[in-house]
Amino acid sequence: MNANGQLSILAPTRYPWSFNGPRKSRHIINRRSFIPFNKLTNKLEGITILNAPPWERRDLIHAFNRIPLNSGPFIIGFESHLPRGFGLETTAYFNWLRGMLADSRCKRIIAISELARRTFIHFHQGHSAFERLMSKLEVRYPNVALPPLRPLENSAEKNLPIRIFFVGNHFARKGGCVAVRVAEMALQKGLPVEVTIASTLELGAATWTDPLRPEFFDPYLKLLDLPNVVFHRGLANDRVHKLLAESDFLLLTTFSDTFGYSAVEALANGTPVIGTRGGALPEFLDGETNSILLDLETAELGDWRYSASTERDTPKFEKLFADEVERLARETYAALEKIAADKGTLPRLRAGARRTAETIFNPDAASDYWDSLYEEVAAKRPAVSAT
Predict the structure, then answer these.
(1) Is 192 exposed, middle or buried (0-12, 13-18, 19+ CB in 10 A)?
(2) What is the pLDDT of residue 385?
(3) H or E segment at 100?
(4) Which of 150, 179, 321, 362 could staple 166 via S-S, CB 3.0–4.6 A?
(5) pLDDT over 50 (residue 387)
């Protein structure tokens, strides 16, 4: 702590931490790059070293997802699995990672959702360190900047196209196939709908929900050329935020997601979400006041039931995936038809979307929480130099 009573907090760069730390802190937050050991091997995804200069003193490390090997006390937030050791849960290495979380150096473990909390319990229940881990575990939702709301025309009221925005590099997993099929249905049936896509089109083998055969996606990719589809192969963040604010809906009919930060940013802009009942989305999308929420058959921990299937290279799985895309597209289209016919629905959903962001994801409340936690934890031990 310095002479002004400010703590020095070491934190990582990259966007997830911005949602899961204070946006305005009364303390000094030193955000540093970190060593991505997972680039060497995925087995090392659960650990990191933050690149802090050796002369920099700190009172606390605020980590996210990866356990810091830097010296000194730390708190750690996580979005799904902690420690991150996918497929290694029965190994001595995973137990070593768990031991670092149970150790007194780890002061608090913060799940970003109830789903993340349940996942943590699932993988640690029955272990001798379980009670120690549970004593540190709590839930704190992410937070989001609340931009000034722009006055928007009611598309349904003025017979303008209903503007749908899809953003996600994992095109099929996040719902891109659903988005373009909705555009095609609208074109065929004369419903004014405009779909904007921002994606680098990552598909297939690298994504655990997707069919493996690249040619499977050709019919969906051809729909990017439809006259009511605008396609961007990746966009800068400021442009994404502008499109979120200008759209009537964000489409996130995802097959697998830990939280869905794009949904949080949409709500902050007063843009309701078309989503699925998977991951943590049902914790803040209610399907009535802030969103359209579609059913998804999920496994115990919130993913689509058929995620990571061993049959992704089979015609059977391809049909399963295509049928699910088709169902979600039909249900989305039917919801849009109702919205086009009821002039009051869209303004009501917009108001509910912003209200959700202001209450659940409020940045001022989050900053107070994090600062209070820093003070509670860091006051119990002296600062350390970086190593």
Answers:
(1) middle
(2) 45
(3) helix 92-102
(4) 179
(5) no
Mean pLDDT across the chain: 92
Angle at 198 between CA 194 and CA 204, to 5 degrees: 115
Nearest in space to 16 (alpha carbons), one of 302, 269, 260, 359: 260
Give the pLDDT mean for 3-32: 92
Q: Is the pLDDT of residue 251 over 70?
A: yes
Pairing of strands 384-385, 57-58: antiparallel
The Cα 342–Cα 330 span in angstroms is: 19
Q: pLDDT band for position 15 (50/70/90)?
A: confident
List all residues 6 or more positions away from 222 whose beta carbon is below 8 Å from its beta carbon.
none
Whether 386 shows a pLDDT value over 50: the answer reads no
Average pLDDT over residues 145-156: 74
Q: What is the mean pLDDT of residues 256-277?
A: 95
DSSP letter string, 39-71: GT-GGGTTEE-B---TT-EESEEEEESSEE-SS
Domains of the chain, CATH where assigned:
8-143+362-385 (3.40.50), 162-360 (3.40.50.2000)
Long-range Cβ contacts of 283-286 (<8 Å, 24+ apart): 283/113, 283/114, 283/115, 283/141, 284/141, 284/356, 284/360, 284/361
Q: Which candidate, 284, 279, 308, places its Cα nearest to that of 212? A: 308
Best CA proximity match to 171, nearest among 276, 314, 283, 325: 325
Q: Is the pLDDT of residue 308 over 50?
A: yes
Contact 207, 170 (CB under 8 A): yes
Residues contacting 224, CB < 8 A, separation 6+: 180, 197, 231
Take residue 315 and report the two structure tokens written for it. 């015609």
Q: Record the tokens describing residue 179, joined without a space.
A: 């988005």
What SS3 state is found at 96? helix
Query: What's the pLDDT band for 349 if we cut at 50, 70, 90?
Result: very high
- Residue 34 per-residue DSSP state: B
Per DSSP, the three-state class of 105 is coil
- Distances in Å between the Cα of 315 and the Cα atoms of 55, 178, 188, 222, 311 are 59, 19, 28, 21, 9
How do the residues of the chain divide into helix, strand and coil, expressed in percent and rounded to 5? 40, 20, 40
